[in-house]
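User: Predict the structure for this protein chain, please.
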Amino acid sequence: MLDQIRIVMIQTTHPGNIGAVARAMKNMGLNDLCIVSPKRFPDPEADARASGATDILESARVVASLDEALEDCHFVVGTSARGRHIPWPITSPREMASVAASLQPGKRMAILFGREDRGLTNDELHRCHHHVHIPTNPDFSSLNVAAAVQVIAYELRVASIESASVTAPQWGTDWDIDLADAREVELMFEHLEKTLVQVEFLDPNNPRQLMTRLRRLFLRSVPDKVEINVMRGFLTAINKTVASFSSKQTLSNDQHPPSDKEKPHV
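Assistant: Here is the predicted structure, written as structure tokens:
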């Protein structure tokens, strides 16, 4: 199970934190590290803090965007230390580890860790199926990113040793279809947003929280590949119907130009 877990660090400022995360990962048997737009990496300070886990640093992928980091992942968890305006499914590290233990073979979970000073952005958290919250002392809740990775990695290791299993996201049975990966889900959301604009349900100049709430709805269900394809097919049918109706309206107007009474006065 540990081979199915990817630790993703986003825009890390201090290279020493990357090295410390590599050490925490190797302590607990994790090996897949992906770093999104770090300020300094590779760096001698990262090597020094890794303390023997330089093989994790050497095999780490450095990418320019979160899309690249998640391209082959099927379940995404974001670490979050604060509540959100719109609530999102939240798990404890132990519950999150149980979810990881129930992943289908070959499916990959990404766990996102944000910037040292402000964590993950709302947009990044909106890419996640669940948020994980480490229950720290509320009077002193700030946790170093390497310490946070150590806590999460420990729970993952315990779950792998104990073969912990809960129903999420398999709902108490072996699922018949592979889970959709992050890229497939994101393309569906892009298609959905364009369609909602097309039918004038979503005002792009005043979107409010519509897409955020729809993201929460779909991500909470952890859709599989067929479910995503059904949604894309449904949206395509809507697109074609709207285009056909618009074309007929244009043709009708061309065939029946307005009479003198209908023409606007100049």
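The mean pLDDT is 89.
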